[in-house]
Amino acid sequence: MRRIHAGFGLFFGLWVGCMEYNEATLEPVPSGSARLDKYVAVGNSLTAGVQNGALYEEAQQYSYAALLARQMRVADFQMPLVSSPGIGNRIEVRNFNPITLTVNTAQGQPKNAGLARPYDNLGVPGAVLADYLNADNGLSARAQQNPYYALVLRGANSMHQLVTQLRPTLITFWLGNNDVLGYVTSGGVRPFVPADVFDALYRQTAAALRQTGASVVVANIPSVTAIPFVTYLNLTLEQSGQLVREGNSYRLRTPQGNLPIYIQTAQGVRTMTTNDFLLLSAQAYLASFNPAQGDAVTPQRPIPTPYVLDASELQTASALVAAYNQTIAREAQANGFALVDIFSEFNQIVLTFFASGGKAGITEDGVTLRPVPGELFSFDGVHPSNLGHAIVANRFIAAINTKFGAQIPRIHLRTIPRGIPIAVGAQ
Amino acid sequence: MRTCGLGRGVLLLLTVVGTAYGGGYSIYEQGARASGLAGAYTAYGRHVSTIFYNPAGLALLQGWHSYFGSTLILPQSRFRGPLPYALAAYRSQSQQFWLPNLYASRDLFASGFVLGVGLYTPYGLGLRWPEGWPGRGIVTEIALRTLFLQPTLAYRTPLPGLSLGVGLSYSVLGEVVLDRAVVDFIPEGRIRLEGDQEGAATGLVWGILYEPVPHLGVGFTYRGPITLRFRGTARTENLPASAFPPSNTGKTELKLPAHWALGVRWSPNDRLTVLADYLWWGWSRYDTLRLDFAQETAVLQDQHIPRLYRDTYQIRAGLEYQPQKKLTLRFGVAFDKNPVPDETLDPTLPDADRWIFAAGMSYAVTDRVSLDASYTFVRFRERRNTSAETGFYGIYNSRGDLPSLGVTIAF
Questions:
Q1: Quick one: angle between helices A64-71 and A386-404, nearest 10?
Q2: Helices A195-211 + A311-335 axis angle, to 10
Q3: Which residue, among B37, B186, B380, would best test binding to A if mutated, counting the most A CBs under 10 Å from its CB?
Q4: For A104, which residue in chain B has the nearest alpha carbon?
Q5: pLDDT for A254-285, tens place per residue?
Q6: How far is A416 from chain B (nearest CA, A)?
């Protein structure tokens, strides 16, 4: 159908058939052997779209799940939206020169709580693998009385119950990060899910997912050293000259010379090596410590264990991630799921980053992003930024296209706003 | 409170996304007579508005001549997208731009020399997109206004039928506006750049008109390149001062292309004249847009934005018919090849190849006074863009309506 534009008087009457514009329609996305019309996302805070330590709508709209739904042109993809500044305490920028962050303790309100059906984004911040089938292992979001659990599940018995109710044709499933993440971010204080427990649970979960009849895409667990929460502080302290490498040990630069740094570990107090990581949570502690009084530089006043992921803890966590990922790969293969290898993707970015001394990142569409807060990650150092989510979504798209022969268009990174929260009264 | 080392250049791309003053922003409608012929006017001569189209044509005029006119531009653009996931339609808000077309000339005591002056607007642009539209991070409003004064001297050579003309195109005033949202922040902010022309800018114009016999003519015009420099302020709304200094100043320059035109005239009888022109435009001069800010921050930095425009051409044809002594009718059609490549196309100037249709008339009220009118309709070809570097894809449709009125007085 074409609109005829007429009425230009005598002369323009000759120009009949001159179109104001051609009708255009969006062709359906070629879906290959999958069906993309009913999509449900299962996961944790990454899937929910937590950024900067909070769940709020401006970030939820850019979660990889929401972006994927948009690219697949899924109609009516519903999320448990929360008004700004969200639930959690949002980290916001107060000044750009230098970058100064502040925490906003105000809380947002749920905006979509009246929805008469389950949400399509079933990402529950804090959820572990056990939450999917509600196989409580003490770490589950329900057992932890996590407020997000009630927000997303609204009284349902399990995520799986809601998935079944939604009758999806496509499921993305990304759980397991929190099974080890709590251990990492607490400097080895909090427990992790042992590999054999994870393996058995994942096997059950995969079988349940397969039974839905939907096409399933699973993602594996990124390396714990890929997150700035672990890597960023050592790097910045080294760049600013406060940490000095001597052999394989880190020393603290003081007016009295370069002093050894003492850290508390499960095996007792020892000096810090270049394989020990000061966590982002140590910032407040480090800001208040005083080497002149012996803080950190005497065995009597070591850096407390929750602020340090020491070498053996790192090894434990890395081995766990490797074991989890082996399970995930095996189950994906056995059940015909598409697998998104987030582990390798992020590992590559992090290796490039460190090999370049903290300069290089991933470049797509002319946008370069390093694995640091404010670029690939949001300011909490754990959750991806809008752009990080777009990159994750592109990996999901690639995996779906490869596995099922679909042709979902990738996301152009320059169309994604950075989503930097600005504090009220920022300078 | 925590401090994070957000590196310099992290947010470098924040304001880069597609700034431009546009490209195919030349305006060739500088008088109702030429416009009625769709601009096929290089070999026309015989009217004082030839000061713009071919200074040599002025040599054919004796005594005092003047033209007081104005052209109204009514641009309209529509965007549908953003592709690949949406096809919602957004229309630019209706705007009106009045351009002056003023010319005067006098022969110098039958010496063969004629002196003239013109005031016109050869470059301009104005577009305002709806508040909150998906392309707001690129542009919500853009405007370019210019005004040129052109003193001109033409000479009828002793060689029969050969005239020469030369003029100096002097930029009297210029103004640019670029308004956009800063979408990278929550909540969003807004930045508005407003600049005025700084310093003088002049360009050379010269032309030849050769009429070996009364019913045939050939004309050639060359208009040299001009670079306009602008200096202005960046006003912000709802943005932190440490990222966007509120009293920041900045400068930029706009490289205007050279062009040449070759035209022919054929008058088979006293009542009919046929004209055809070929024009070349050196748009490849506009390779980069530079924005220099007086105060740079981690977020706001100087920008060099590739534009990569291509040289282009136009083909113009016109027909003039005089059914009776007092009345002259004109018709014209032209094709205008756009200079903007797909990679740098964005909604600051959603250019496309254009078809131009024109009609006009003159009515001689007395021997000395005649009224001139024309109507030009510009149809932009539909342009579907899915390869712009901004990633902002969609379908553009544009049109322009340019009515023009004027009065010619000779004595």
A1: 50
A2: 30
A3: B186
A4: B1
A5: 888 899 999 999 999 999 999 999 999 998 88
A6: 8
